[in-house]
């Protein structure tokens, strides 16, 4: 029988990890608590990478029509509301935070690291001067279709609406029992040879480490025990101190009413509440377009989201929509000759992403892309491990490499 691996989390990290496991002859099962797969990639606008391995995977996904390059008018909206196309944005952008530009009024705004001006590496990837990065790729049918399409490509067993509630390692057989609740009274229990945790929540991995059986031979070693305790604490701290929320706002405008807006997507490095903005219809496959009109999606800054949530509003998403919609309106108003005549949206709705981004990775400097605990056949993957300019890329690489490493462990047994 092929070795079986439980992959907990069916976002970009988990689905690519499962694909990597299948391609090495293993049998992964992907568990996801959501009704569909995709996780946060359902909110992501694009993926870009300078990594040759991930570029090759993206080419395969493009051949299967799951992703496609996004070509459009890209750039930044400056502090006075004007638009600067990506090809004119200073070529020395690499590593420099736009918000720390002394000529930019936003340098005085308190901003978290993810709001440093270049949203997820968007400008670096869309600037013609950057030869290293691959173009921006979009999930053609959205993040859910991408994750589900990846699993379909690999013929992977997927359990959606299955929240993993317990992970138990039997020290005698070295096999894992995974319990997942899927709405039925008794959680389903399945056995595996290895587990990859690809959840968005590092504290889930911390609990799995804390629950490792004390009688496991490796845990007789004091150094191993104390290293694992430190790792569990670091993962817990990451969740509590280095995870930033954001809101997204979807606004639908009357068809063609925003023809004066000179871009399809832009970073807004000087805007205190919105950091990125995109016209959905400009994306390959139409993105999250609306049949009613011209749909735009804005991503809030983490500073905005944290400040709003600190006030404990009764409906955070309604409060976010009420505050973000006027900000969006003023961003568009700059492109209309008579102030105040920018068209009004037909509808607005907001969504909250509690664990949107990691502000400080588990392993700064990117030395490790995933955490591998070979004595237990346990790996932890996700964008929070190594971090990086493009979090989707960090998660994808983490998942692919974790899958490869687990396959190596199991083939050596
Ligand atoms: C608003 C927003 C916009 C973004 N835009 C971009 C962008 O344009 N480009 C970019 O590169 N990055 C972007 N990102 C970041 C990107 O979406 C993430 O880096 C990437 O999707 C992470 O994937 P993941 O699989 O590691 O985590 P997730 O996508 O969070 O997936 C984790 C999955 O695990 C599941 N899960 C958790 N616990 C359990 C459990 N106990 N049992 C079963 N399942 C469980 C969850 O349901 C979830 O589906 C954006 C993020 C946000 C919030």
From TrEMBL:
Tagged with keyword Signal: yes
Entry-linked Gene3D superfamilies: 3.90.660.10, FAD/NAD(P)-binding domain
SUPFAM superfamilies noted in UniProt: FAD/NAD(P)-binding domain
Record key words, sorted: Signal
UniProt entry tagged with the keyword Signal: yes
Signal sequence residues: 1-18
Protein origin, superkingdom: Eukaryota
This protein's name: Uncharacterized protein
């Amino acid at each position: 029988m092929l070795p079986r691996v439980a992959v907990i989390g069916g976002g970009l990290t988990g689905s690519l990890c499962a694909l990597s496991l299948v391609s090495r002859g293993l049998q992964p099962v992907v568990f996801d608590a959501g009704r569909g797969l995709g996780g946060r990639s359902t909110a992501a606008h694009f993926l870009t990478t300078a990594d040759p391995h991930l570029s090759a995977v993206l080419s395969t996904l493009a051949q299967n029509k799951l992703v496609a390059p996004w070509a459009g008018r890209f750039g930044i909206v400056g502090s006075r509301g004007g638009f600067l196309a990506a090809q004119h944005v200073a070529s020395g952008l690499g590593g420099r935070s736009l918000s720390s530009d002394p000529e930019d009024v936003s340098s005085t705004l308190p901003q978290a690291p993810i709001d440093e001006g270049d949203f997820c590496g968007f400008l670096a990837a869309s600037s013609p001067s950057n030869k290293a990065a691959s173009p921006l790729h979009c999930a053609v049918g959205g993040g859910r279709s991408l994750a589900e399409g990846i699993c379909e490509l690999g013929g992977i067993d997927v359990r959606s609406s299955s929240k993993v509630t317990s992970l138990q390692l039997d020290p005698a057989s070295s096999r894992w029992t995974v319990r997942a609740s899927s709405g039925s009274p008794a959680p389903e229990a399945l056995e595996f040879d290895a587990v990859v945790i690809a959840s968005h929540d590092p504290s889930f991995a911390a609990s799995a480490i804390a629950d490792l059986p004390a009688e496991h031979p490796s845990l007789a070693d004091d150094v191993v025990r104390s290293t694992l305790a430190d790792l569990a604490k670091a993962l817990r701290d990451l969740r509590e101190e280095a995870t930033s929320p954001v809101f997204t706002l979807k606004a639908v405008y009357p068809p063609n009413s925003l023809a004066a807006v000179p871009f399809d997507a832009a970073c807004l490095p000087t805007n205190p509440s919105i950091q990125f903005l995109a016209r959905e219809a400009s994306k390959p496959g139409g993105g999250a377009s609306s049949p009613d009109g011209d749909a735009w999606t804005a991503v809030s800054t983490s500073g905005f989201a944290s400040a709003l949530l600190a006030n404990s509003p009764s409906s955070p998403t309604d409060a976010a929509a009420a505050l973000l919609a006027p900000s969006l309106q003023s961003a568009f108003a700059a492109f209309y000759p008579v102030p105040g005549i920018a068209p009004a949206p037909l509808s607005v709705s907001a969504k909250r992403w509690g664990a949107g981004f990691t502000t400080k990775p588990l392993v700064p400097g990117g030395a490790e892309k995933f955490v591998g605990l070979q004595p237990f056949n346990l790996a932890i993957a996700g964008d929070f491990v190594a971090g990086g300019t493009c979090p989707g890329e960090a998660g994808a690489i983490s998942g692919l490499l974790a899958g490869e490493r687990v396959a190596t462990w199991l083939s050596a047994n």
